[in-house]
Amino acid sequence: MELTTKKLLIEAIKDQQNIFGDFLLENVNESVEESLSKKSAAIKEIDKIEVSLTENLFVENFQKAESLTDLNSQICDCQKCALGKTRTKFVFGVGNPNADAMLIGEAPGRDEDLQGEPFVGRAGKLLNDILRAIKFEREDVYIANILKCRPPNNRDPLPGEMETCIPYLHKQIDLVKPKIILCLGRVAANGLLDKKLSLGQLRESVYDFNGIKVMATYHPAALLRNPNWKRGCWEDVQKFRKLYDDLTAN
Ligand code: SF4
């Protein structure tokens, strides 16, 4: 390295000392190469801190929850969409926090809104019967909805409501870590899988959500309205049980 270039570099490094402090340059007489290498390491560290600060700015507190209880307490007063104003009770989810099987519906109905628990009332009782028919108790699985608040008159959730609320469900899935998910109804399955398919199409395949197997069947409320669909549901849940047994065999 030429003498003038070396002198210039030493001057530059001295200037940088004001920015990066003594940790960068303990001794200006050390070799220029060593100083440059320290400077480069310091810049990389600063870059890392900047990335981490930027990431944290965009991570909401609920995403840092370490348990379902913690998550529930962080989001139960949510008012991110208009349904927060009209709900009676926030409906978080219920069941085994370490369940291998998770059931997902679209939104609370009247009974759920009153009791603060998903799948209660007539539809809930039918769901319990369906679960028992495939040798599950309600307490074995984890049950949640895409929306945590009831849409007025049980209308379908609006796309904006689903988009706003679904990160909570994603976090619940992260915490429960199920091996398999059964979506109850077209809206729940399309919402989770981000698809626009008919329930008939959704029932034909096993899907993947972040490495978790996903199946779809009828919503119990739909089965109450149309008992002819019970046969199809029975076939679906038998497949679901078989896949669950395969996935949990080891
Ligand atoms: S539906 Fe979801 S996003 Fe809307 S207020 Fe309720 S919890 Fe919040």
Structural account:
The protein is an alpha/beta fold and 250 residues long. It has one domain: Uracil-DNA glycosylase-like domain (Uracil-DNA Glycosylase, subunit E, 3-Layer(aba) Sandwich), CATH 3.40.470. 52% of the residues lie in helices and 10% in strands. The protein has 11 helices and 6 strands. A 6-stranded mixed beta sheet has the order 1-3-2-4-6-5, with helices on both faces. Strand 5 and strand 6 form a beta hairpin. Helix 1 packs parallel to helix 2 (32-58). The chain binds iron/sulfur cluster. Iron/sulfur cluster is lined by residues 78-81, 83-84, 147-149, 161, 164-165.
- Low-confidence runs of at least 5 consecutive residues: none
Distance between the termini: 64 Å
Bound molecules: iron/sulfur cluster
The CATH architecture can be named as 3-Layer(aba) Sandwich
Number of strands: 6
CATH superfamily annotation:
Uracil-DNA glycosylase-like domain
* Overall form: elongated
On the 0 to 100 scale, the average pLDDT is 90
Look at the helices and sheets and give the structural class: alpha/beta
Tell me the fraction of residues in β-strands, as a range.
Answer: 5-15%
- Biggest sheet strand order reads 1-3-2-4-6-5
For this structure, the CATH topology is Uracil-DNA Glycosylase, subunit E
Count of individual domains = 1
Instruction: Give me the strand/helix succession.
Output: HHHHEEHHEHEHHEEHH
**Major β-sheet, in short?**
6 strands, mixed
The number of distinct helices, counting runs of at least 4 residues, comes to 11
Which CATH class is shown? Alpha Beta
CA-atom Rg in angstroms:
27 Å
